[in-house]
Amino acid sequence: MAQITKVEAQVEIKSSTEKLYGFFKNQMGRLVQMFPQNFKSCEILGGGDAITTGTIMSWKYDLGNGPISVKVKAEAIDEEKSIAFVVFDGDLLKLYNTFNTKIHIFKASNGSAQAKWSIEFDRANQNAPNPNENLDLAIKIFKGVDAYLLQ
C-alpha cells in the first residue's frame, strides 16, 4: 500500500497575494530567466504563458546535484489562489511513485500575506530521500519573486 508523505515550506511575503499568485499563474516560465542557476528550461506545451487546468509543462532544473527533467500537469487551479501540479514523467519518478506539488498564496489569520509550497509524494523505495532540496528551492523562488514584484 502506498505511503503518501507530505512536506511543506511557507514564507511571509511583502507583495500582494494577487500579484504573487498572478505571477505563478501567468508568468511561471520567467523563472528560467530569474533563477538561471537552478532552472535550465521551461516549456509550456500547448500555448502561451498562462497556466490553466490541464496545462502541461516540461521543466529542466538543477538542485545542485545535476540536471532533473520532469513533465507536470496543472491539475487544479482555484480562486483560493492555489495551483496543484502532478508530475507524470521524468527523473523524479525514478525516486517517487507519485510526486504532487501545490502552490497556495493566502492571507494568514494575522493579516500577513503567505506563500506555501506543499509536496505530496510516495517513495519508490526506502532509500528515496525526502524532497527537502525542492522545498529549499521553493523558498528561494518565493522570496526572489516577492522581491521582484516589489521593485
UniProtKB/TrEMBL annotation:
It holds the Pfam family Bet_v_1. One of its GO terms (biological process) is defense response. Residues 2-151 form the Bet v I/Major latex protein domain. It comes from the Eukaryota. Belongs to the MLP family. This is Bet v I/Major latex protein domain-containing protein. The lineage of its organism: Eukaryota, Viridiplantae, Streptophyta, Embryophyta, Tracheophyta.
